[in-house]
Amino acid sequence: TTHDWEGGNPDFAQVSGSSFAAPHVAGAMLLVYDWGVYDPMMIKAMMINSAEKRVVDAWDSGWGWGYLELYNLKYITDGW
Questions:
Q1: Cα–Cα distance between 22 and 28 in angstroms, integer?
Q2: Is 16 helix (H, G, I), strand (E, B) or coil?
Q3: What angle do CA 22, 23, 28 make, to 5 degrees?
Q4: Collapsing DSSP states into helix, strand and coil, what is residue 26?
Q5: How many CB atoms lie within 10 A of CB 51?
Q6: Cα(44)–Cα(66) distance, rounded to whole angstroms?
Q7: Angle between helices 70-78 and 40-50 (to 10 degrees)
Q8: Helices assigned H by DSSP within the chain
Q9: What's the pLDDT at 63?
Q10: Are 16 and 1 in contact (CB under 8 A)?
Q11: What is the pLDDT at residue 1?
Q12: Domain boundaries, the chain
């Protein structure tokens, strides 16, 4: 989804969807890997458990597990 606001900067657009989330999630996974967590299933569990919930404290068809929150993710890995 893109939006064209009247009088806005034409160099920027608001976009959404999983295609735009994927690079951020991949980058977060690399950070966790860099922090010393190498098991992919553990990284997935940590990302799910550190997500900020939008609607309910469970998977949601609109938001998945919530939105990525690197601060919470780092907090979890500090005790790793």
A1: 10
A2: coil
A3: 95
A4: helix
A5: 17
A6: 13
A7: 120
A8: 18-34, 40-50, 70-78
A9: 75
A10: yes
A11: 47
A12: 19-78
